[in-house]
Amino acid sequence: MTDKANAAATQADDRLVDIKGLSIGFAGANGGAPIVRDFDLTVRRGECVALVGESGSGKSITARSLLNLSGDGAKVRADRFLIKGRDALTFREADWRRLRGTVTGLVMQDALVSLDPLRTIGQEVGEVLSAHRTLRGAHAIAARVGAVLRKVGIPDPERRAAQYAHQLSGGLRQRALIASAIAADPDLIIADEPTTSLDVTVQAQVLAVLAERVRDGAGLLLISHDLAVVAGIADRVIVMRDGRIVDGGPTADVLRRPRHAYTRQLLAAIPSAHSRGHLLASARFDIIGGDSGHASASIIREPLPVRQSPDDAVVLQVDTISKRYASRQSASHAPSPAALDCVSFDVRAGEVVGIVGESGSGKSTCAKIVLGLLSPDEGEVRLLGQPWSGVTETARRALRARLQYIPQDALSSFDPRYRVADVIGENLAGPTRTRRDRTVALLEQVGLNAGHLGRYPRSLSGGQRQRVSIARALAAEPDIIVCDEPVSALDVSIQAQVLDLLSALQARLGTALLFISHDLGVVQHIADRVLVFHRGRIVESGPVAQVFADPADNYTKTLLASIPAIDRAFAHSVGSNLAAGHH
Amino acid sequence: MNIRSQPLSESPVALEALGAVAPRTIRQPRSFAPAVIVSLIFLAVLLAATIVPQAFTRFDPLVGDFTQGLKAPSLEHLFGTDRLGRDVFARTIHGTRYSLLIGLGGMAISLAFGIVLGILAGQRNRFLDEATSRVFDVLSSFPGVLLAMLVVTFLGQGMLNIAIAVGIAGIPKFGRVIRAQTQLVRDADYVTHAVVYGLGRWQIFIRHVLPNVLVAVPVIATVYIGNTILAVSGLSFLGLGPQPPTPEWGVMLAESRDVLRVAWWPGVFPGLAITLTVIAFTLVGNVIQKRFEGRLA
């Protein structure tokens, strides 16, 4: 309702971007047909518009067209294309250049790639100012850079300005990138997946910085594949699919009472505590209560096949392992911080154990030790009661088939010369004839078929690759599979399919899973027990429901508070809108 | 044993599936630039001239008619005749065999040693890497031709020795590329993780590392073959290779020097043959390199 009030109060000259009937195409690509069609967009001052869609939906290319950066040979056509009231279709390259930085600022996804490694943060941010001659003189620029860095929440900006991108943590780097985008005070900020590679706690900070800019009167076009991120910050949402707008409107309307089937499907496919024990990909949205405004939406999900009840046999036993990486530059002989510090846990047969934690928390080190790729400094790992760490690789090999692995990036784990049949066949024993039949059976088990045998993994989609990777792991008929971020590179709907496949197979085969993820929703969905890693220690562990509902540890609390969740987002925004209304 | 030998793609389903992936696979255009087509035809002619030089000319490359010395190019003698009345066209055609074979032989020697040493250097063993890399440094600190001359001085003249000489000079070039490629493959996920799927060290090396390292070989080979042929001709020109009256191109060039003031044809045509061969190999090599670029990792 406050949204409507806002809309009435705004004037036409508030519109930073006013686009109607935009189409973007590339000669030769997509058969000459435009990749983006019939796209309408308005962004006003002090408004955040989110552009949501899965990869390939055309959201990035659309956003980049606002900077005339949609790529070489892009054919941009529109009925109306106004940026701050000026007709951008008549712009020449020089006009666009004046626009970039001062009127429109772009924040990209990967700050390490987007920042020049040979220049300091201060130079990087200052360049926007000197390029447009908004400020003259080194002192004025340095002062402004400091102010901007402070504005995006970088502590100790004078010192940070003299540092290079690689010396900053991921969160600071992303904030520096935002700083360079907003240095010249652009009216419109375009943020293309600004938080995708960040940890949840850092993501929360970065989103807060962006929200602050919006409160100060800037317009924000936020591009994201994550509906939950969008829920907390956006005023309006536009859902894109295959280059078209399929749904749009005020955030609360779109996310709580989605009209379009695709939006509903996207929302229903998000894994969470509620979706435990159910299938995600086939979940449907059901809205009860009509248009009374108090409509409550519920999601109807099909249950998973009944699980084999986990028995008490311990498959994997990790006993107080520690690992320290030798650091070269520590001249002071101060011990480097431990990557893993006295970590102990068990995985029982048929159990799904989730590991959550931020980057650098020791998850990956732990996975490597469990996989036997790294040996712990102290402690011991036992697989099926037999020694696993601290023995030679030859001694381990007999047990290798019992413990399998599903990596995050399936493609890079396949030999580029191998076809699907070779990838899976390599993990099978026995004569060629039966191996082929087994491979086909495995492919069918993961939702592929014999037609995929001769394909190269690089010609498969992300979801299909991950299926091949699952089939390869299952080929060895393991007792436990280590899944290292198996779905974090996938779109929501594909993620749902792969998670469904994993949990259905797990239920049927009774294989234990050690499931590592930074996505707490995924862990809540699939895991029985969860281990929370922080700075190389397990700070909390226990049944998923208990840990998530009633966290005992402070870090776990922070972590849980940082997850963007659609429900909580509305609780927040309603509160802030009410507060604003009282002024 | 080898599952790859199965005729998988023979089933119609598999073929159909392959066809259906067109939008996702990056299909390279099948058309070549005209220069490359001409180069390919030229190389085919060279190959034919290596195998059956008699098919191209009825003249004997070694025996000439003294009375017909230094005749300008005509329909009878396409490239004219040299001082001894030998047909220059016949000598150029017959010379293909020597120039190409010595070049390829030298290349084979460079490759054999380059691959073995490069793979050794690419292992995680510090000592092996240091040792082989220093060998490469020493070899490449000499100019290629000078090094080859040194080798010939030790081994004596002759076709085999000149191939060895050129081959040794080329070892560091190949060795360094193979070393870099080995390190790249060694650290690739599919190699580091292969151990998780229960493969032994040698199995991983034979199945995953070696084939993916060797992917680079055709690329560097075709790019450098032109160089090798040039080096062989250069050494022959200096009199270190095959001796007259062998119709090797470099030898022919050397012989033509004395008569250059009165007759241009005994020198220009073998020189042209060398130049065109090197250009043809380089052009084709560049195309192969571009094709392989995305697949090296």
Largest interface comes to: A-B, 42 and 35 residues
Strand order of the largest sheet of chain A: 7-8-9-3-10-11
Beta-strand percentage range of chain A: 15-25%
| Quaternary structure of the protein | heterodimer
Low-confidence stretches of chain B: 1-28
Note the total helix count of chain B: 11
Average the pLDDT over all residues of chain B and give the rounded result: 81
What gyration radius of chain A follows from the Cα positions, in whole Å? 26 Å
Rg of chain B (C-alpha, Å)? 24 Å
How far is the first residue's CA from the last residue's CA of chain A? 16 Å
Helices and strands of chain B, in order, run as: HHHHHHHHHHH
Through-space gap between termini of chain B? 26 Å
Which stretches of chain A are poorly predicted, pLDDT < 50 over at least 5 residues? Answer: 1-11, 571-583
General description of the model:
- The complex is a heterodimer of chains A (583) and B (297).
- With 583 residues, chain A is an alpha/beta fold.
- Helices cover 36% and strands 23% of the residues of chain A.
- Chain A has a six-stranded mixed beta sheet with strand order 7-8-9-3-10-11, sandwiched between helices. A six-stranded mixed beta sheet of chain A has the order 19-20-21-16-22-23, with helices on both faces. In chain A, strands 1, 2, 4, 5 and 6 form a five-stranded antiparallel beta sheet that branches.
- In chain A, a hairpin with a 2-residue loop joins β17 and β18 (386-387).
- In chain A, α8 runs parallel beside α9 (200-215) and α17 runs parallel beside α18 (492-509).
- Chain A is globular and about 70 Å long.
- Chain A starts with a helix and ends with a helix.
- Chain B is elongated and about 80 Å long.
- Helices cover 65% and strands 0% of the residues of chain B.
- In chain B, α2 packs across α3 and α6 (159-186) crosses α8.
- The longest helix of chain B is centred in the middle third of the chain and has 35 residues, at 88-122.
- Chain B is mostly helical.
- The relative contact order of chain B is 0.13.
- The two termini of chain B are 26 Å apart.
- Chains A and B meet through α14, β19, α15 and α16 of A and α1, α7 and α8 of B.
